[in-house]
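re: ur question from earlier - yeah i can do the single chain one, its not a big deal. heres the input i used so u can compare w yours
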Amino acid sequence: MRNRPIPGSSGAVRTMTLLGDPVLHAPCAPVTEFGPELDRLVESMFATMYAAHGVGLAANQVGVGLRVFVYDCPDDEEVRHLGHVVNPRLVEADGDAYRGPEGCLSLPGLEAPVARFDRAAVEGVRTDGTPVRVEGTGFFARCLQHEVDHLEGRVYAEHVTGWRRSRLLRAIRKQPWGGGASALGA
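and the output i got, formated as tokens:
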């Protein structure tokens, strides 16, 4: 029996911000106002993430320049991690770095290999202001690093180098939303 609501069940699906939108490429502001509006934002972010079949979503991906992200992501052992972090800080990223395929809801349909550490920890607060520390390994560590990057105004494509970057930029330009490739210096 479930004793709490399903995240996103009361949220509205928002329009996804795509590569090139200025809010996606600027550092997000810290949350200073806690209350019902922040709760509604988090609910809508969950609803949007689920509608897009994602495992993580940062607020700037729905056009809101605040330091908030949500996640519903497995680690490499298929353990499910579900929650949100307000004003997150990546406090640890270590272990081995693995290059693995990475995609993004703001660059739909594309992916490229990105090197990420296999262990990460994020600290911040919940929507009610209580402190939280979220630790992850494997795929979930990749998710945590990816979402914090978003809040710093970076997308995964900025980590891609060499011929892989050239190939990704060509693929971006072929997309209907590909005009944002200039945001990556292309």
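The CA atoms of residues 58 and 147 lie 6 Å apart. not sure if urs matches, ping me
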